[in-house]
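To the wet lab folks,

You asked to see what we're planning to order before we commit. Fair enough. Below is the target structure as C-alpha cells, and below that is the sequence we designed to fit it. If anything looks off to you, flag it before the synthesis order goes out.
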C-alpha cells in the first residue's frame, strides 16, 4: 500500500470514527503527551511540576465577553447547538479520534495544509473549538504561521503581544501572550510581530520550554498549532518534532496527488493522524441538472 493510499485510508477513518468509544480523562499525576524530552522549564531549573486544579481554572476562563451562536455562525465557527450539525459532528468525530489515539493524555497537535496559499486556520480553529464542547476540557490555539497569520483576523481580535514577542524577549511572561477568544474554554496565542529569523526561534530552547510549560500546566488542556503549508515551509517541518500528531488539510480542487504525497513524506507516517478534506462545495440537485 502506497503512502498516499495509507493517508487516504486514515482520512476515511475520520468519517467512520466510533462515537461510542469510552474516553479516559488524563490525571494530574499521569505522564502527559508521548513526546520524548518535552518538559516544563521548571524541571530544567531543578524544580518540580505543580499541576494546577484544571476544574477551577476552567471555570475562570469563562469570564469575559462570550460570542453568541449568531456571531459564531457569522464567523464560520462551529457550536454545539447548530441546527445543521453535520459539520459540528465531523469535528466531534475528529476529536474522538484524537483522544482515542492519545489514550486519554493531553497532547500537541499540528494542523497544516499541503497547498501553498491555502491557510489551515479555519480547520484548526474549529478542531480546537470542538474540544471546548466538553466542559471539563480547554483548548489553546497557537498561530505559528508567522509570515501569513490569520487566526486573529478570523476571530476579529486585536492583539498586541504574541509568540514571536515571547520568544524574543525573556521578560515577557506566558500569560501576557494568551488571549481570550470569545469562545468558552478556548484561548489563543497570536503570531506576534513579524520577525525575519522565525526559523531560529522555533529551534530555540525557549520555544521547546514554552511547549513543555503549556502542555504540563493543566492536564486537560489540548494544544493546537496552526502552521504554514508543510510543503512550503521549513518552519512547519521544524515544528513537527514538537507535536504528537499532525493533521493535514487538503483543499478541494487545488490539491494534486503529488502534493499530498510530498506533504505525507514531509510529515512522516508516525506523526500523521490523517487528512481532512476542506473547502468542499455544497452541490444541490438542481445545480447538477442545469444545462
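Sequence we intend to order:
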Amino acid at each position: 500500500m502506497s503512502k498516499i493510499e495509507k493517508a487516504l485510508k486514515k482520512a476515511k477513518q475520520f468519517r467512520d470514527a466510533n462515537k461510542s468509544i469510552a474516553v479516559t480523562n488524563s490525571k494530574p499525576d499521569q505522564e502527559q503527551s508521548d513526546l520524548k524530552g518535552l518538559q516544563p522549564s521548571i524541571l530544567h531549573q531543578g524544580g518540580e511540576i505543580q499541576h494546577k486544579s484544571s476544574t477551577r481554572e476552567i471555570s475562570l476562563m469563562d469570564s469575559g465577553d462570550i460570542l453568541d451562536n449568531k456571531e459564531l455562525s457569522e464567523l464560520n465557527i462551529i457550536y454545539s447547538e447548530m441546527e445543521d450539525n453535520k459539520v459540528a459532528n465531523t469535528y466531534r468525530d475528529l476529536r474522538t479520534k484524537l483522544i482515542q489515539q492519545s489514550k486519554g493524555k493531553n497532547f500537541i497537535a499540528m494542523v497544516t495544509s499541503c497547498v501553498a496559499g491555502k491557510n489551515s486556520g479555519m480547520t484548526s480553529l474549529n478542531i480546537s473549538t470542538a474540544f471546548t464542547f466538553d466542559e471539563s476540557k480547554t483548548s489553546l490555539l497557537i498561530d505559528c504561521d508567522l509570515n501569513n497569520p490569520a487566526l486573529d483576523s478570523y476571530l476579529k481580535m486585536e492583539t498586541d503581544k504574541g509568540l514571536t514577542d515571547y520568544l524574543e524577549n525573556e521578560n515577557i511572561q506566558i500569560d501576557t501572550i494568551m488571549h481570550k477568544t470569545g469562545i468558552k474554554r478556548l484561548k489563543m496565542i497570536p503570531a506576534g510581530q513579524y520577525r525575519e529569523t522565525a526559523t531560529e526561534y522555533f529551534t530555540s530552547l525557549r520555544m521547546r520550554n514554552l511547549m513543555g510549560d503549556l502542555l504540563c500546566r493543566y492536564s486537560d488542556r489540548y494544544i493546537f498549532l496552526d502552521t504554514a503549508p508543510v510543503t512550503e515551509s521549513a518552519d512547519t517541518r521544524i515544528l513537527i518534532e514538537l507535536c504528537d500528531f499532525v493533521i493535514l488539510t487538503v483543499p478541494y480542487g487545488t490539491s494534486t496527488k503529488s502534493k499530498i504525497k510530498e506533504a505525507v513524506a514531509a510529515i512522516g507516517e508516525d506523526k500523521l493522524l490523517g487528512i481532512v478534506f476542506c473547502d468542499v462545495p455544497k452541490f444541490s440537485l438542481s445545480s447538477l441538472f442545469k444545462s
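Structural context that might help your review: The longest helix spans residues 86-102. Residues 55-281 form a domain with the Rossmann fold fold (CATH 3.40.50.300).

Thanks,
Computational group
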